[in-house]
Amino acid sequence: MTAFIIDHAPSDIHLIYHTMDWLSGKAFLIFFPVSREEQLFIVQALTDLLYEFYLRLNRQWLGSSKWKYRTLAAFDPEFTSDFMEALDRFYEKRETGKLVQIADRILKPFGGRLFDGFSLGKD
Predict the structure, then answer these.
(1) Could you tell me the residue range of the domain that residue 104 belongs to?
(2) CA-based angle 119:39:94, to the nearest 5?
(3) Which of 43, 55, 73, 93 could form a disulfide with 60 if both were Cys (CB 3.0 to 4.6 A apart)?
(4) Cα-Cα-Cα-Cα dihedral of 58, 63, 69, 70, to 10°?
(5) Between the CA of residue 95 and those of 4, 68, 73, 120, what are the distances in Å?
(6) Distance CA 106, CA 109 (A)
(7) Residue-wise pLDDT tens digits, 102-111
(8) Domain annotation covers residue 75
(9) Which of 32, 24, 75 has its CA nearest to residue 83?
(10) Residue 84: count of CB within 10 angstroms of its CB
(11) What digits encode the pLDDT tens for the residues 42-83?
(12) Residue 13 within any structural domain of the chain
């Protein structure tokens, strides 16, 4: 992770921390017996966070609304296809496994979901 930190701005480090913190906690509530309605909001937030994380850390432009899909597909069509399949599986069958695989795939280069010892603002 040290080489990554040297190559990225402080705002990127904050994004990494925020994403990993969120994914280690709230995002994985989709596994627990929460209501369908709660799952929908969790997955929406997770989708937005993963989209921003993936494109920002690859130095790509971000979009909103339909441009989220377009910017992601223009940058990495194969990843986008996998991401869309994961979302389809969730919305059609309430399957979360593929979506979690996508999250893990994005986080893997940064040490995965767990970031033992990392903190912001502490000496």
Answers:
(1) 34-113
(2) 120
(3) 55
(4) -90
(5) 33, 23, 23, 34
(6) 7
(7) 988 888 887 7
(8) yes
(9) 75
(10) 14
(11) 888 889 988 988 998 888 999 999 999 999 999 999 999 999
(12) no
Structural domains in the chain (count): 1
- Global pTM value: 0.74
CB 49 within 8 A of CB 22: yes
Task: Name the one residue in this structure whose structure tokens are 């339909």.
Answer: 66
In a domain, 68, yes or no: yes
Residue 2 CB burial class (10 angstroms; 0-12, 13-18, ≥19): exposed
- Across 8-28, b (16+ Cβ under 10 Å) vs e yields eeeebeebbbebbbbbeeebb
Residue 108 lies in a domain: yes
3-state secondary structure of 97: helix
Token pair, residue 81, equals: 């296809």
**Which amino acid, residue 87?**
L
